[in-house]
Amino acid sequence: MSEDENTDDLQRLAWQRARLADRVRASGWYLVVFAVTLALVFAAPFGTHYLQWAGSVSILMAMAIFFLLQAGFARASGLAIGTRTLRYPSGRAAGIALIVASVGALLAETILLDHSEVADAVGVAILAVAIGVIAWQAHLRGIRRDLRAGTGSQ
Amino acid sequence: MKNAPPPTPPAKLDEILHPITRLSICGLLAAGADWVEFAALRDAAEISDSTLSKHSRVLEDAGYLTVRKGAVGRRPRTWFRLTPAGQRALQGHIAWLQRAAHGLPHSDPTGIDKEKAPDQAVMPDQGPSGGSGDGI
Question: How many angstroms away from the CA of B87 is the closest CA of chain A?
């Protein structure tokens, strides 16, 4: 086998990986369902504030929807990227940003609701959902980069 | 404390992975996804259903990949995942290809994985460098 053939094999593999990675794209339905999932998470402080049990129910529903969403995404894309998605190095920063923003938003909402600033708490929740969706898209872009480079799943 | 990264397998030619179709299948499975569905793998590698079935069976028999079968409604779905043994073999083979592409000498002059070569030889319809014509 010649050096050129070996180089061709490696180049072909890189090209095929790029095509596989392109399947990791968030379609409209995926982003809408993800936004609903986040809305349920950020509705939890309201649930806890007005009806104690509703906060937990909201979080449990969000978790169930997230797992179903990832299963649906695997079915649609043909790639199961798993739910422990922080193991993709390029997507890690966006994933961590999402977690930090979520914790910050949940704390801010709780404090605002304790001070009866309901409108501000709703504003924080809406902003957090928007930031979360953008961060998740960046996270998926990172996963795509890792799949293209063959460095994912560490 | 950080875990030490696993040692890189030595660069060596793996007869099972050498046909380009099998190299493609394993290379795509090693990209990072947990499981890759049959159609996604077939489309990315640009091979036919029968070619993918044939080669995936060889790789499964060699212990390089795991196959999971399921169904969505009445439609059967097959998922593939690379095993740790397949991952190691692929890393060694890719390293061998990279050395060969740069014209570097191999520690073993033949570079062939002699443990596997005699009994897990390439498929009868392919030579050591065969398979490049089937679908890619």
Answer: 12
